[in-house]
Structures are given as structure tokens and as C-alpha cells.
Amino acid sequence: MTDKPRKNKSPDPDPPSALHVMPGIESSHDGMPSSSVNNNRPRAKVTPMTTEQYVDGILNGDRTIIGRAITLVESNALPHQQQAQDVLRLLLPYAGKSIRVGITGVPGAGKSTLIEALGCRLTEQGHKVAVMAVDPSSSLTRGSILGDKTRMERLSQDSNAFIRPSPSGGALGGVTRKSREIIIVFEAAGYDVVLVETVGVGQSEIAVRSLVDFFLLVLIAGAGDELQGIKRGVFELADAVLVNKADGDNVQAARFSREEYERALHYLQPATQGWLTGAYTASAATGEGIDDLWDVIERFRDITVANGEFARRRREQVKDWLHGMVRERLRETFYSSDAVTAILPKLEQDVMNGSLPVTRAAWQLLETFEEAVRRNRRNER
Ligand SMILES: Nc1nc2c(ncn2[C@@H]2O[C@H](COP(=O)(O)OP(=O)(O)O)[C@@H](O)[C@H]2O)c(=O)[nH]1
Ligand SMILES: [Mg+2]
Q1: Are residues 107 and 247 in the same domain?
Q2: Is 204:93 a contact under the CB 8 Å cutoff?
Q3: Ligand (nearest to CA of 281)
């Protein structure tokens, strides 16, 4: 990538400001290959930016540059990844100072509406709020948050809020890495509250739990746990359970439901040491209970910062991040190795028809891979 310095004041053809997040997301800034769909809109080519321009822009809170930096982080092209790493390294000293809140629950529970209600309150109080969705299942649609634009109408027009749909990336590992790096960009840009919405299916809760300090499970009254697709394990990840839609005719049912969850939570191991996961009610629609929810989150932060859990979890998360990246990289290298792909179909057949034990097939694959690595190294010398 050529790093020609330039004045970056010319209007971006599709600035990823919060106002335009949704249409802007499919764009390939910097002429990056977009792994996604919807490239049928003509687009002017954007001049590449230097690493310094990225860093300065982000530290100054420049929305256009923040958007472009996120696109850079999301790019799968090697030169972009290399520049993204340079940018991130320079941003790291400025990152880490937000509270990261994950929000899970089945589709329809009201997560996006809740983020709108909470986010708007927080910006009124002077916070800068960044919102991101993690949806590994929808690399094609680029995240459910696209459909949630209408639920975050006010927040998406708030100059102190930044909404970013799910990073595309195919595999969950890629999405998680990108999400972590985007959080660093947000924090360096001065966002002090990061809200991460998950689709609440498959592995996405565990992935988001590993990104955040506080994890909120949003439920609704009346629907049984089963109906809500709630796995027991998810309760054990939660720092709070919120029974949403406690409004209108639903208030009583929500209170009853809250009590039930509160009782059930007594039997579970709390997700965070020194903190008792509680159940609460709220209405994202009317705003009732939203301030109380924020009080809970702040209390959580005070307590866990004081008892060291906050910092301990973040350290663990960084360690997991490291191992996750190594695993991701090893897997990619392994499965893209010519030596491996040459023999893989045959070995698959052999284990499927029972003529070769799985362990032996695995050993053979690994030995073939190691041999190929050694050969490459000899050739390089
Ligand atoms: N009555 C009521 N409806 C709500 C509330 N929160 C969300 N909804 C509605 O529930 C539906 C799903 O909300 P959404 O925020 O998209 O849920 P998500 O899929 O969890 O993000 C929408 O029609 C919302 O208007 C609430 O507190 N009360
Ligand atoms: Mg949603």
C-alpha cells in the first residue's frame, strides 16, 4: 500500500458516520476488497491514508477516519492487516478506558431498543457511546444490526454515538479478533461506553462474553426459557438478567418473571467473583428501569475494579485473544497447505469407510504438514 500523505479533507464518498452507518457499511474504503455482497453501487476510489493520519484522526475523534480505520481492521488483505496492526499498536496506550457491556438475548427480546434507550441517556449525561453487533452467523447480511437501524434512530443521529454493524469475517474467530480491535479504535477515539449486541445464537454469547466487562442477558416475561432459546449456560455467563417489556399489561408478568429468575440465579455460580448476578425489570420502550440498569453496571464496575476482578478479567481476555489468534493462524496455515489439501480428501474417505483409524489419519496429516514446513524452510535458506 502506498502511503502518500494527503490532505484528508475532501468529502468521503460514503462517510461511515453514524448517520450513514448502514448504507456505508458495504463500502470498500481505500479500495479494499469487500468480502461482502452489495457492491453494485458505484464508488469513488478513496486515497489511502498514512498510519499517522489514521492515528491522529482517531485520537481527534474524527468520525470519517474512525470508520475508515474500522474498515482497515476488517479487511482480510495482508497489507491492510499490516497497516491496521501499526495503527493499533500506536493506539493501544490510549485504549482500555471504557466500560464494555455485552447484551445478549433472543431476537425480539428488545436488545436494540434497549441500546437506543440506554445509549441516548448516556450521551445526554456526557458519555460517548459506541455500539457494535457481533453476528458470526451472517457474513452475508453483515449483521442483524442492519435491520435494527429503525430501532436506533435517535442514537444513530447522535454526534456522541457511533454505531457499527457486525464485522464480516466468516468464522467466529475472525469476527472476535476484529471486534476486539474495533473496541481499541473506539476507546482511543474517546468512547467511554462500548455496547456490544449479540444475536444470541450458537457460540456468539461466549464470544461476546470474552470481549466485555459486563454481560447482560435480556429476556421477556411469559415465554418459557425453552421458547426463548435460553440455554442454562447463558445464565452462568450473565452479570445481570433483565426482564424487558415491563410495560402496559405486561408489568405484573414481568415482575413475577423477575422473581423467578432471581430465585433460579441463587443456585448458579455467579459469572464474576465478588458480584451477585441479579434480575431486574425494565421497559426499553418507555425508558422505565433504564437508569437503574445503568446504576447496576456502574456498581459492578466500582466493585470489580476495587476487588481486582475487572483488571483480572481483562488480562485473561488478552491472553485468550493471543491463543485464539495463534489457533486461528495455525488452522488457516494448515488447511491452506498444498501438502495437506493433496491428501486430505483421500484420508477423509478412509476414515469414513472405516479403513483407517482417525488418530492415524490425523497423525499422517500433521506429519505431512510438518514435513512441508521443514521443506519450505530449507528452500528459503
Ligand atoms: N412493549 C415493548 N416492546 C418492546 C420493548 N423493547 C422492544 N420492544 C419491541 O420488541 C420488538 C423487538 O425489539 P428489538 O429491539 O429489535 O429486539 P432485538 O432483536 O432483541 O434487538 C420491536 O418491535 C420493539 O419495538 C419494550 O420495552 N416494550
Ligand atoms: Mg437487535
Answers
A1: yes
A2: no
A3: 1
